[in-house]
Design brief:
The complex is a heterodimer. By secondary structure, chain A is mainly beta. Chain A is built from no helices and 11 strands. Chain B contains no helices and 11 strands. In chain B, the strands form 2 sheets. In chain B, strands 2, 4, 5, 6, 9, 10 and 11 form a 7-stranded mixed β-sheet that branches. In chain B, a hairpin with a 6-residue loop joins β4 and β5. The chains are: A mainly beta, B mainly beta. Chains A and B meet through β5 and β10 of A and β4, β5 and β10 of B.
Chain lengths: 125, 106
């Protein structure tokens, strides 16, 4: 069974960085893009970017360019999302989500299933 | 960037009602459009992919249609457990979500 387990809640001061992990199981980790999506309290979903766990290649949403770094450790099937220069606007639940279509597939992938349980990041002085 | 405009932002309906949500893309995205359901405190759940394909295990009262810039999500007969927020998501050029539609019982 495909499963994504994220690290626990974090409290950070403004200006700090946070690194959230997402451990995958039940499938070949390097075979599927991993995406990161965040949701501020009472707000909608915001796509942050994705990583190709095989190559390490990344694509970031324009809103996060220069502030987000996505990495992976294939030896432990874990993806990471690090966000720097935090402000109170970064207070949100951060989700990892696996793309449903294998990277090598001939069809275009882009729907997310499954999702991790979410990690609450609170930025407060 | 592709913008997704979802409407309405909120909706009240009665059990058994037909419910329709629309999503409009700022440019042609073919059928690269998905729909998710999110209940409070939970991660989103995929319902429809590629505009009209029902994800395995999702009840058949849920459906999607459309292509190009205009898309529709329909619940044919509302059940109490369908109370949630629904999001569209495009993946023609990276990914963008609509603002969401909060659905509750009248």
């Amino acid at each position: 069974q495909v499963h994504l387990v994220q690290s626990g809640a974090e409290v950070k001061k403004p200006g700090a960085s946070v690194k959230v992990s997402c451990k995958a199981s039940g499938y070949t980790f390097t075979g599927y893009y991993m995406h990161w999506v965040r949701q501020a309290p009472g707000q909608g979903l915001e796509w942050m970017g994705r990583i190709n766990p095989n190559s390490g290649g990344t694509n970031y949403a324009q809103n996060f360019q220069g502030r987000v770094t996505m990495t992976r450790d294939t030896s432990i099937s874990t993806a990471y999302m690090e966000l720097s220069r935090l402000t109170s606007d970064d207070t949100a639940v951060y989700y990892c989500a696996r793309d449903s279509v294998p990277i090598v597939a001939t069809i275009r992938g882009g729907w997310f299933d499954p999702w991790g349980q979410g990690t609450l990041v609170t930025v407060s002085s | 960037d592709i913008q997704m405009t979802q409407s309405p932002s909120s909706l009240s309906a009665s059990v058994g009602d037909r419910v329709t949500i629309t999503c409009q893309a700022s440019q042609d995205i073919s059928n690269y459009l998905n729909w998710y359901q999110q209940k409070p405190g939970k991660a989103p759940k995929l319902l429809i992919y590629d505009a009209s394909n029902l994800e395995t295990g999702v009840p058949s009262r849920f459906s999607g249609s459309g292509s190009g810039t205009d898309f529709t999500f329909t619940i044919s007969s509302l059940e109490p457990e369908d109370i949630a927020t629904y999001y569209c998501q495009q993946y023609d050029n990276l990914h963008t979500f609509g603002q969401g539609t909060k659905l509750d019982i009248k």
